[in-house]
Amino acid sequence: MKKNTYAVIGLGQFGLAVVAELALLGSDIIAIDRDEESVKKAANFIPTAFIADATNEAALKELGIDNVTHAIVAYGDNLQASLLTTIILVTMGISHIIVRVDDDYYVPIFKKLGASEIIMPQKVAGKGLANRLDDDDFLDYYSLGDNFSIVKITVGNNFIAKSILTIDPRNKFDVNVILLIKGNQTSIAKAHDILNPGDTVYVVGNKKQLKKFGLFLKGE
Hints:
- The chain is an alpha/beta fold.
- It folds into two domains: 115 residues, NAD(P)-binding Rossmann-like Domain (Rossmann fold); 94 residues, Regulator of K+ conductance, C-terminal domain (Alpha-Beta Plaits, 2-Layer Sandwich), CATH 3.30.70.
- 36% of the residues lie in helices and 28% in strands.
- The strands form three sheets. It has a six-stranded parallel sheet, sandwiched between helices. It has a five-stranded antiparallel sheet with strand order 7-8-13-10-11.
- A hairpin with a 2-residue loop joins strand 10 and strand 11.
- The longest helix has 14 residues.
């Protein structure tokens, strides 16, 4: 199976965050931007960060961008560069092209151009903030679509310690506990794990059931 390789094009806050996370995962990454300072920041995470114009096909090929499996076009405010870069990447035959877009209007345009996936960080952040404000039990919120979400909940001080098996969240609350954080240790949640006050869990389910489960973990 061919190993995934990545090109991150545009090294603003979003692009740098992608580079940093991929670097932590040990991925092979090429990062480029026209801004020298942005490239220097990316170079703190990977050795393959370059100053280059992504709208220049020859420059991209010289850096080996045409050989990656995934390309992330991460510009935030340069629509023309995003459009031209996407066209070049499609022409190169990159199998998976992800484009950051900040305006709904341009989503169908990028899809018609051949983008595989559209990311709207501001919209996602706005939804997450609104849902966290709507429910104080949710420390973080990630929408999965079709009314399903992942939320981060801290077990309340009034909660009586129980194992996940005893709680039986799947059958009693129609949610799944997927991650457990105890102090500085994060692990995949297992049936025998004991939930204690102060622990943090990531839970997946629909919002109505997540709200009920959040109240339960608060000991209410």
